[in-house]
Amino acid sequence: MTDIKQRMKRRRIFSLFFPPAVLLLLFSPGSGAAQVEVYNLRPFTHPTHTRIAIDIGQLREYHSNRLVEPDRVYIDIYETQLNPILHDKTILVDNGYIHSIRIAQKNKSTVRMVVDLDFDLTDRYQVWHLFDPFRIVIDIFPKKNIPATPAGKPPATLVQ
User: Fold this and answer.
1) Mean pLDDT of the chain
2) pTM tops 0.90, yes or no
3) What distances in angstroms separate CA 14 from CA 3, 86, 129, 141, one per listed residue?
4) Where does residue 122 fall: left (phi above 0), alpha (psi -120 to 50 degrees), or beta otherwise?
């Protein structure tokens, strides 16, 4: 009878501790874990706003913030590596309210994308994400009297 009680006790302890331990091993970043790649940056200027999409291999935590002097919005994407073709890229947008978009490897595990803009000419911005494939999207809306693209200007130019 005591043998059965001991087995039951072991099973209870096992069922309490084993599943959380497995989850920790599966979802905690290991020292040798490969990081997900930020592999594309796509700006689109529409008549009403500009959309910037950041393509990422998998779901990742990110943080956005607004800074002034100079005016800019940035997004930090954690536990990611920047694809080598995007290292220190600058895209000149110059659509009246957005000047440029920059992307770089901030540190070993964080990619930072910065939008240089003019808050006096910007109504608002929204940062959100989509799945399948995972991407972070930022929509930037100009004030009503500012056209999204000046006549005769290309919407974006890639600069090294």
Assistant:
1) 84
2) no
3) 16, 47, 39, 55
4) beta
